């Protein structure tokens, strides 16, 4: 067997040398691997929901009709959290990036924290409420600086009358209240239930505004009241079309409080940066518009109770000729009037009157200050000169010689 020569001049037999070379090569390979081999990619977040279609090229009719930007000089909803109890809300769309908080999932996917929306409904709702400005698309939400708290309760159908679902929605309402929601959007319809009703009462007692869909008509089925919209204190929303008429699929009832755009709806898709188009619309989308306006009101008037927020919404809406009806309630929501109007009478003072406006900064303030001080100093000097005038005149008459005493010091 051939021997191998060591670096110190001694030899290794062939078997030992082979083992040595194997060990050396393995060590070098391991070292190179740590330097040259790229780390394994982190597990990608699950892709939730459809990617959608190309973005709109012009503002939607709903945006042009409501014109929420008219009130943005007063507020854009900063500091307000809107809980969206729905199918989840994607946090990856450009409209919602940085707007979606960690939430909860009551539908067997707790690790997703409510941020996985398989059907796109909740994401579109969230975009209507709080979609960001400045994404390069002519689209934003009603309250673009509000935050979204996603709470996933419905995997697919936004109208669910299965046993157990109402109680689950009630649990979601309580969770949202306990985790900082100022407004809760309920673009869903379910059955009457004691646990759900108690959860609504709990939210109202905590000062949280509840906005819910009045419901949509289904073929071969009579109109059924939409819960939780029917409950006292919940703002029930109907759908209105481009012409200002009641959308035919929107359920009517005496419990309907207000209307909002509910046909030909556009909003963000959950699977990327695309958009979903909902020509059939529905009261769930109308609900989102009203929730966005409620967020603006809460930001501008944090002292108002849920009852007072509802009063402000309904009394500033574009009322139908009869003032209120079962189709659209008090009419189309009006963001600008809802935030800025003074409501009330002399005997019943306004609710949520606008605070005193902050005076604009005066760019010439320092020049004015300098001018005032110059005037003051000038006045003082003028006074001094006037006081010295007789003294100076006397001094000139005497040739500035000291005067004599009339009485000697030793007298």
From TrEMBL:
GO biological process: proteolysis
PROSITE patterns: SUBTILASE (PS51892), SUBTILASE_ASP (PS00136), SUBTILASE_HIS (PS00137)
Coiled coil regions in record: none
Transmembrane segments: 370-395
KW Repressor (keyword) present: no
Location of this chain's protein in the cell: Cell membrane
Active site: 86, 121, 284
Family label: Belongs to the peptidase S8 family.
A GO MF term: serine-type endopeptidase activity
Major subcellular location class: membrane
This protein's UniProt keywords: Cell membrane, Hydrolase, Membrane, Protease, Serine protease, Transmembrane, Transmembrane helix
Keyword Cell membrane in annotation: yes
Stored InterPro entries: Peptidase_S8/S53_dom, Peptidase_S8/S53_dom_sf, Peptidase_S8_Asp-AS, Peptidase_S8_His-AS, Peptidase_S8_subtilisin-like, Peptidase_S8_subtilisin-rel, T7SS_pept_S8A_mycosin
Source organism of this protein record: Micromonospora auratinigra
GO cellular component: plasma membrane
Protein name in the entry: Type VII secretion-associated serine protease mycosin
Matches recorded under Gene3D superfamilies: Peptidase S8/S53 domain
Pfam families reported in the protein's UniProt record: Peptidase_S8
UniProt membrane topology term: Single-pass membrane protein
Limits of the Peptidase S8/S53 domain: 77-331
């Amino acid at each position: 067997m051939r021997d191998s020569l060591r670096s110190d001049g001694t030899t290794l037999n062939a078997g030992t040398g082979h083992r040595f070379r194997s060990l050396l090569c393995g060590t070098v390979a391991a070292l190179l691997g740590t330097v040259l081999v790229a780390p394994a990619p982190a597990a990608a977040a699950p892709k939730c929901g459809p990617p959608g279609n190309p973005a709109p090229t012009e503002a939607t009719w709903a945006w042009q009709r409501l014109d929420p930007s008219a009130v943005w000089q007063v507020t854009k909803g900063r500091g307000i959290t809107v809980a969206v109890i729905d199918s989840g809300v994607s946090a990856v769309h450009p409209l919602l990036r940085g707007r979606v908080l960690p939430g909860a999932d009551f539908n067997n996917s707790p690790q997703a924290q409510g941020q996985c929306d398989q059907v796109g409904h909740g994401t579109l709702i969230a975009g209507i409420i709080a979609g960001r400005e400045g994404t390069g698309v002519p689209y934003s939400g009603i309250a673009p600086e509000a935050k979204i708290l996603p709470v996933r309760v419905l995997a697919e159908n936004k109208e669910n009358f299965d046993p157990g679902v109402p109680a689950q929605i009630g649990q979601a309402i309580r969770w949202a209240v306990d985790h900082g929601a100022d407004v809760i959007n309920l673009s869903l319809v379910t059955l009457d239930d004691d646990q759900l009703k108690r959860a609504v009462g709990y939210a109202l007692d905590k000062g949280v505004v509840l906005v819910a869909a009045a419901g949509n008509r289904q073929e071969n089925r009579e109109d059924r009241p939409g819960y939780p919209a029917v409950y006292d204190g919940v703002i029930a929303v109907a759908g209105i079309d481009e012409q200002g008429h009641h959308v035919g699929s929107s359920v009517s009832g005496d419990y309907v409080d207000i209307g909002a755009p509910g046909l030909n709806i556009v909003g963000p898709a959950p699977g990327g940066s695309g958009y979903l188009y909902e020509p059939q619309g529905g009261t769930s989308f109308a609900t989102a518009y009203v929730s966005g306006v409620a967020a603006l009101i809460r930001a501008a008037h944090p002292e108002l109770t849920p009852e007072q927020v509802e009063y402000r919404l309904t009394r500033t809406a574009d009322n139908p000729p009869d003032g209120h009806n079962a189709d659209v309630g008090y009419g189309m929501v009006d963001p600008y009037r809802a935030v800025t109007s003074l409501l009330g009478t002399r005997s019943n003072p306004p609710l949520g009157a606008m605070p005193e406006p902050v005076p604009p900064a005066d760019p010439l303030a320092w020049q004015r200050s300098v001018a005032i001080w110059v005037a003051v100093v000038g006045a003082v000097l003028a006074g001094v000169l006037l006081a010295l005038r007789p003294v100076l005149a006397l001094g000139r008459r005497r040739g500035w010689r000291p005067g004599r005493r009339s009485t000697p010091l030793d007298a």
